[in-house]
Amino acid sequence: VSTQSTGHYYITNNLRMAELLLDPNIRLYVFIPIVLICLFVGLIRHYVTILLESDKKTELSQVADTHLLRRARLLRENGNHIPRDAFMMRRHYFNGPNGVLKVEKTSPAAANPMTDPSMMADMMKGNLTNMIPMVVIGGWINWTFSGFVTTKVPFALTLRFKDMLQRGVQLTTLDASWVSSASWYFINVFGLRSIYSLFLGPDNEADQSMMMATQMTAPGAPPDMKKAYKEEWEALEVRNHRWALENITDHILYKNNSVDSSYQIAQKAL
Fold it and tell me: Which end of the chain is more exposed for a tag (fewer CB within 10 A), N or C?
């Protein structure tokens, strides 16, 4: 068995696979700093996006459609807590022959960003706060912390994961479970969603994956209310009603009788 020191880590070559003994300083000067950098960059991106965000005009019809769909969903989810007649009356209001969900909605045309200067400005602001920091910080981390092995996943992986988890570390004998510093950065970029939700709430601008998914959609495309009305109508139509308080009186009387009987037995025992 021969041991070779490389400056960043130690490699022990044997007949099967290379075993690494990481320097404890890697945890303090590479592993934790990358996590903190990704966290603070996401927090800064969130507040910068809020500062650069322009006021969006909301149509009255869009607000009315959103509230109507919310009322239908509340009836579908909580309909068991009202009597059957009340539930059927409300469902008829939504799903009847002349129900509000049966109204034909026209899909509005998407706005053209080439003719709307404000939409073009919003797209440029999104690229400024999303892609540029990711490229700049990623390049700086790849240059500063290049060649480090930071951690190891707690399960075995196949060799196909080496290209994804060991960017910047070209060692054919290294186990695929080890993670390089560059790959650790990308894992933090897309894996800190729960931490951002804890600090900033569920609707935050720090989540990189959510922002990329938003940019993949058509810019300026309004929600398709025709499709939303149809889906909510179908979901409410197949909803069966079963009143949750149907036998509540008998349940309360039985519970009170059981309590009284237990109290009387306890009194007799004393």
Answer: C
Yes or no: say if 148 and 30 are a contact pair by the CB < 8 Å rule.
Answer: yes
How many angstroms separate the CA atoms of 101 and 105, rounded? Answer: 9
Q: Which residues contact 105 (CB under 8 A, 6 or more apart)?
A: 65, 225, 226, 229
What are the angstrom distances between the C-alpha of 23 and each of 8, 152, 186? 7, 13, 22
Q: pLDDT tens digit string along 174-208?
A: 888 888 888 898 888 888 888 888 888 777 766 66
Q: Dihedral sign, CA of 246, 251, 253, 256?
A: negative
Which is it for strands 2-5 and 9-13: parallel, antiparallel or unpaired?
antiparallel
Instruction: In whole angstroms, give the CA distance from residue 189 to residue 37.
Output: 10
Angle formed at CA 193 by CA 187 and CA 194, multiple of 5 degrees: 115
CA torsion angle for 95, 98, 99, 100 (degrees, to 10)? 150
pLDDT in tens, 10-60: 444 443 455 677 888 888 888 999 999 989 988 888 888 888 776 667 678
| Spatial contact of 161 and 125, defined as CB atoms under 8 Å apart | no
The DSSP output letter for 206 is: -
Strand order in the sheet with 19-22: 2-5, 9-13, 19-22
172 by DSSP, 3-state: which?
A: coil
- Residue 229 CA to residue 140 CA, distance in Å, equals 48
As given in the structure block, the two tokens for residue 164 are 């994804």
Please spell the DSSP secondary structure of 100-157, one letter per residue: GGGS--PPPPPP-TTT-HHHHHHHHHHHHHHHHHHHHHHHHHHHHSTT-EEEE-SS--
